[in-house]
Amino acid sequence: MKSIRTRLIRLVVLAILIPTALATSISYLYVRHQNIEQAERSSLNVLTRGNTQVTHYIEDIRRLSTSLYANRSLMNIMRVGADQELDESDGVVSRAMLGLFLSRQDIEQLHFVILNGYSEYSVYNMKTTSRGKFDWMQETDYFRLMKQKSGWLIDEAHTIEPYNVHTMILDEKQVVSFRYRIDRVETDEPLGFLSVDIPVRVFEQQLKLFENDPEESLWLMTEQRVLAQTGAEMELPVDRFTGQSGSLRVGKSFIVYSKTMTNGVPLILVKRIPYASVIQGANETALILVLIGLVSLFVMIIAASLVAMQITKPIKQLTANVWRVEQGDLSAPFVATTNDEIGLLNRQFQRMIQRIDRLIKREYRLALENRTNELRALQSQLNPHFLFNALQSIGTTTLQGDRKIAYRSITGLSQMMRYSMNNEQTIVTLKQEVDHLQAYIRLQQQRFPERFRYIVDVPWHLNDIEVPKMILQPFAENYFKHGFRQQLAATENYLAYKVRTDGGRLIIQIENSGAVLETGRLEEIDRKMRMHRSPEDLETSGIGLHNIYERLLIFYGEQANMTLSSSAVEGGFKIVIRIPYEKGDLA
């Protein structure tokens, strides 16, 4: 049994937990969504500024190649080839490349190729190498530049390498190479190539300007080539960068990207933010709500416990007093300690117990005693009829000289008398009652052999049903007293018992043969059966049916029903009894 205190505390816990859980979940989802949107907006703003800055820088690098078109001498050498005037050509190219190298401090290495004659020059560490022979175009990005419309491209980050045998690299650095195709202005005919190597650290320094947290990382990419990056390595899902800008979640990271196009070359700026930092605000909000809910829950549990104690204490006292009354102690004090509903209940209980005590002392005990005496008187009225008829049957058998039958009859009679005279047992099983009935009928068979036939139809599964004692045999006794005719054959004298159930009721049906009743006789028998009689009443007419009817009313009250009917042509009685049949109810 769950106490009121337990149920009240549980109710309070549910009343706090459910709203808190819902509020926390909804707030968490809402704040997380807002945090993600805010992180995406702020990151996209940063990436937009970063794209603008990186694009301007790359545009400055790209303009390096345009300065070569202003050098007419260099353009003439590229048209005719460097082999025409070696000394003059090498000097013009060397000065032009060295000037280009010195024009910016962030250039690590230059490489210049003249297609006419396949001459090449490189500048590294402020030194221009002598002219070399360029014969490896098929293995470089220059081959792609020959067919590319934009005329320039950006190579991914790589370790710096010498372009020819005349260059000695002093230290290994990561660089990004910008490749340019130099065309004839009039015909767009390719004349040569220019490569500019820019250290990766230059782009990394620019990317770091857009980091808001040390745990963030940025990538500068062109198509699927990484030009520069900061922070930890991560495989980027480039194929999912479908829009111009957007965001996506990859593992424990939140990725924001922004695309731009500079002179036909696509650039992608990517920012990785730890997902935990993005939803940090949502987590903090959820934690605050959980703490508030826990504190509220703790306070409410204490308050509910105090309230429950104030409620359950008088209830426990009331329960203890009711238990004392249940044990028969009607002197239990019902003291109202409060002026609420429980106090009113205590006072009502006290008045009820006092009234019950008076009723028990003045009315119930007297009525119970009268009812007991009445039941015993009804049972005792059955015994003389049965004993007289049984002794008469045994006497007849004895006069006939059959001692064995007489012995069995006396033995059966003694068992029947023991059964019928045991007034302490008022409730028996249906099997005991049927056995008593059949023992009586066997005595009558010995008295009137082959003079009647009988049927007792009781399903075996009904044997354990409890019924009042002596409700079957008196009908058989009445039949042999009033309806049995000795002069008739067994086919015309019959007695039938049939027992069935219908829902929660036990139906006992008794039929017998007999004389045709006069008009109004059945109504008179029925009236006398239902008429109340005192135990001192000396009238014996209809005493058997009346006794059984009275005993059924004593045990079952209005739930018992007994009806009589007869045949106007064939004669005889039909009696139907309906009583509850649930086990244990009458014990």
UniProtKB/TrEMBL annotation:
InterPro entries: Bact_2-comp_sensor_kinase, HAMP_dom, HATPase_C_sf, Sig_transdc_His_kin_internal. It comes from the Bacteria. Keywords: ATP-binding, Cell membrane, Kinase, Membrane, Nucleotide-binding, Phosphoprotein, Transferase, Transmembrane, Transmembrane helix, Two-component regulatory system. Pfam families: HAMP, His_kinase. It is found in: Cell membrane. Signal peptide: none annotated. The chain crosses the membrane at residues 286-308. PANTHER family: SENSOR HISTIDINE KINASE YPDA, SENSOR PROTEIN KINASE HPTS. This is Histidine kinase.
